[in-house]
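May I ask for an example protein's residues together with how it folds?

___
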Amino acid sequence: MRYWAGPDSLFKVLGILTCDQLKAVSEKILIDNFGLSTGHWLYAILRTDENLTWQKGETDAGETPKSIGHSYTLPRETWDENVIYAWLRMLSEMVAERARKSHVWGHTTSLWLNSKNESLLRQKTHLDPTNDGWEIFSRARAIFGQRKGRIQGVRAIGVTLSGLISDATPPLLTELKKREALLSAMDSINAKYGDWTLSPAILKNNTLL
């Protein structure tokens, strides 16, 4: 039976009051009550490798994470798409960096937006998996572009990569090979000299970040 009510009401009906209680609920129950997209996301989000607003212990050595996500709560609600896109870019890069460190690629990109009065969660699965921050950002931005009329200001933003695999097929196109080589070089420099020694110029130039 699916209850058509707000998330807070559903959590109370199901007796879910803490993150630990939510994590104990099966994916089937969450999907049955919240729908396929939201139910799957609720199940996956507490199994992410890292999240800015909630952090679990380190993933067991050799274990492929279920999903990798980052989120951020803004100081205040904003309607400025430039600010929202800047944070989407940052979060996407953080997710991508974590994915590459774990040697995984993801098929599904999820975007979570929260405002004072409502929240929105959408995801899109693509045939080609990725761990490229630009590609994750492009997919999240496309999801964001579909939300017009659904949510007003944004107070919190989250990006998650799921449907993870550890054996992605090497790229065949020259431009994709060059992009992969560039990311590998950037990761090597950041590993040697510190995180974010190299990063996209938009993040360096944005004073909000």
